[in-house]
Protein 1
Amino acid sequence: MQEQYRTVARAGVHETEINRSRFICALAPVATEEEAQEFIARIRKEHPTATHNCFAYVIGADASVQKAGDDGEPGGTAGAPMLQMLMRREVRYTAAVVTRYYGGVKLGAGGLIRAYGGVVGETLDAVGTLTRQRFRVATVTVDHQRAGRLENDLRATGRAVRDVRYAEAVTIEIGLPDSEVPAFRAWLADTTAGTATLELGGEAFA
């Protein structure tokens, strides 16, 4: 299981011109293959008169889903170099669409590969990337008397407090890397004099 992965920091668009052809790359973070396909369809709708709308996407922290399409460009000259650039930059959960408006000058196979891969790389530089870390969702239950101080202590020690709910007792949901669970249990028992409970939930990335 991957402990972390890199993805695009935000959706973004970058354009470059090569031998009078316009290459417009749109990048977006996507959680599923369906989201990637919806993004590709939306970009195609935005550029109905473009010569080509080529795509590539990578889904999964371990890059388990990789797809690319040339949309009429010679086989392997568009989608494949776009996908290779995403993989080379180790970017996951990301979809890329490169829209080309043909400018009248043929680029040849090598030129196309450089153009499609290159504009994806330039767009990644422009929008930036961020790293998401795998963690376990953990719920701390504590009495009202200790809750305020415990929440402050959690934030002060850099814990990701995701949610706080007040009922008969107070539940504080945090993100906790697996490797830190034993040490956190000991810290929690010490801080709350053994009155708080810790329940481990599912895994997520943040």
Protein 2
Amino acid sequence: MTGEVSEIALSKQDLREVTAFAAACAEAVLKVFEGDQPDDLRPRDAIGAAWEFARGGERGKALRDRAWAALKAAKSADTAAAREAARAAMSAAGAAYLHPLAKATQVKHILGAGAYAARAAELVAHDDRSVGAEHLEQTAHRATPAVVDVLKTLPGGAEWRRPGW
């Protein structure tokens, strides 16, 4: 039947690996948001919740709520760079909700935090694309073999290569 989407096997450990990767990506630009909104802890809380899950915590309402709160923080930020940094935090907390669907759209749950973080870094550097490219290179180096294996299960993911592999 056309339009059917198959499922992929995802363990809780796979989700923890993906979430740890996303949290590390978002954490790299957290200071961008905090420089813009020093009294707003929502993105920090979202990244903290992501790390908590990655380290063995439960995936529940509190994690989801912190992801949504980071998105709201993005909307209240004064600069575009701060908005992107807060979106990276939202994506980090949301990474725990990667769906076991073989759809290319699921890649955003894995790589979204890194992409938002790279854009935040670019904007801080006055839209210097080379800074974003360098940040993406660092993001790729953060990807553990387990994260790459999850990416490879998704459509188009077989092309994923971590530098040096």
Protein 3
Amino acid sequence: MKNKKNVIYAMILSLVVVSGVLFANREFRTERSPRLLSINEKKALLEARKKWEASPDGIKFKKWEISPEGKKVRASHDKIKKYINDFANMEAVVTSVTFQRANVKSGPKWLIVRIDSEQYMMQFIPKDFQQLKSLKVNDRIIIRSRSAGYSPNHPYLILSGDYIEQNSRILFKRDFSKNNGC
């Protein structure tokens, strides 16, 4: 049962990452003529979505989405959506550099920030997080993010950490060139 949960969580996380990458490349996609999906492709996508929504995780996500916690996360996304779409600077205050999910001993590192009185999470692999080791609670930083995602397993909206600056010094800048922008 534990392996099934891990696989499902990995699938949800990969879905968030893929949607973030697709969202980040929106200018590139709009320059080309859009590819229309065939009727069979549309049906297959719809069936896959319905199947997932009927699964225990899909049901859990739908319940979370309409819960006060889900609505709060969605509202926090609405507050910064324009900044994400424009890849614009957001002023943030660091509230935690040691956040760790319950029952998880290793894995990604989390930076928790406050933007306009709302808390947000930023996930990094340990290697990337090393560039942020100088940050402390209450430090003021500038963030740019290309995408965001939500999950019932996280208390806040998850922002992609694509650019972080402190006192006009770049602390972190995600390199998309190695994947041709993907």
